[in-house]
Amino acid sequence: MYKQEYNRKLVSAEEAVRVVKSGDIVDYGFFNGKPVQCDLALAARKDELKDVKVYSAVTLPPVPEVAKLRDSFTYHDWQFSKIARILQSNYELCYYSPILYHQAPSLYRDNVAPHRNAAISVVCPMDEHGYFNLGPQNSETMANMEVADYVIVEVNKNMPVCLGGAEEAVHISMVDYIVEAPDDQLLPDIPGAEPTEIDKKIAGHLMDFIYDGCCIQLGIGGMPNAVGKAIANSDLKNLGGHTEMFVDAYVDMIESGRMNGSAKNFDRHRCAYTFAIGSQNMYDFMDNNPALASYPVDYTNDPRVICQLDNFISIVNAVQIDLYSQVNAESMDTTQISGNGGMWDFVLGAQWSRGGKSFICLSSTFTDSEGNMRSRILPTFSPASITTVPRQMVDYIVTEYGAVLLRAKPVWQRAELLISIAHPKFQDELIKEAAKLKLWRKTNKIE
């Protein structure tokens, strides 16, 4: 019964983006929801448009064409990715917009964010009930579409249908224009990084804290994949999943039978998430899979929701930590690497959970562009670095040299514990710097 309405709203990408005017604010779908055909069509209008502000988050390939056109468009990313870093640091073509991710829907609905003139997102083909499933990026999409002047959907037949708990689909009655992507428009195949030996060591330390019935939150990268593989090969039982980002590691845990969600306080037998980025194998796994539940981010990431799940284990990554135990997870000096995303949400929510724990992980060192080994544990941050998580919120810190509990510890003891899991090459220098900062007590032993 919706076919006539579909045909009436079906237009070319060029016709759909004619609604955008100079000075407008346009939202692209986050993650795999970023449009491709509409982006090309909008960029083609560069000579007739000025000061169009485009917002998205975790920009995935292909590079958005509008981001390359400084004179006509200003591109923003709510949560940086590799493409956004390159656009900003090399070409000054992208700007970071910091938010607490769980608040994203309310920023639209409560008119905190500037009014959106158009919302453009990639979706699944329409079903018999007139709904377009949003695919693996529920996030803030529905709130965005509710407030925008125009809603444009770019239909991609290759998008997995992601069953949901709420707001996982938009009805054709809310849509102004429909654009169909070509059949060969695939999702970016981004498998999780292969775990390094350091990742495996960090995962080994984390496994000491995971027990039957825990509810697990993971981020992206080699270390979470190492955790997923370790769990899949363990004898753990009845684990649950509740996360911001669904990654390949969850496929390992669910398919192994270790993660079945039976011990969760709610969303039993389902792994809740708000977006997913990973391999084609992962997207195939997600398609119409009742073991998963897509939710908006104000549900998955709200610490008041997270804390209601007992024995919640949050595992996130950081870039640096200083001896005061401040955590930087988003920048290296003046270069924006990532964003806060849901880190703050899960660090706090896990500590509010009965039996819950928050783990912030990082390798003890990295190699800079000149080939020098540098410590990620620093006496103090450089003036331009960002504090993502304040020291008052820090629970456990983990490197390949161990896991230390900093919560409720005094500053001198935090410094000593952090030095104990730093790379041995840097420990003596860190002790000297801690003494200068009056954070080192020679007579005290690390507990």
Describe, in plain words, how this protein is organized in 3D.
The protein is of the alpha/beta class and 447 residues long. It folds into two domains: 3-180, Glutaconate Coenzyme A-transferase, CATH 3.40.1080.10; 197-436, 3-Layer(aba) Sandwich (Glutaconate Coenzyme A-transferase), CATH 3.40.1080.20. Helices cover 27% and strands 20% of the residues. The chain is built from 15 helices and 26 strands. The chain has a seven-stranded parallel beta sheet with strand order 4-3-2-1-5-7-9. Helix 7 crosses helix 8 and helix 14 runs antiparallel to helix 15 (424-436). The longest helix is centred in the last third of the chain and has 13 residues, at 424-436. It is globular and about 75 Å long.
CATH class of the largest domain: Alpha Beta
- CATH H level, superfamily name of the largest domain: Acetyl-CoA hydrolase/transferase C-terminal domain
The chain-level mean pLDDT equals 95
- Decide which structural class fits the backbone: alpha/beta
Number of strands: 26
How many separate helices? Answer: 15
The portion of residues forming beta strands comes to: 15-25%
Biggest sheet features: 7 strands, parallel
Radius of gyration: 23 Å
Oligomer: single chain
**Which bin fits the share of residues in helices?**
25-40%
CATH architecture of the largest domain: 3-Layer(aba) Sandwich
Strand order of the largest sheet: 4-3-2-1-5-7-9
As residue ranges, the low-confidence spans are none
Number of domains: 2
CATH topology of the largest domain: Glutaconate Coenzyme A-transferase
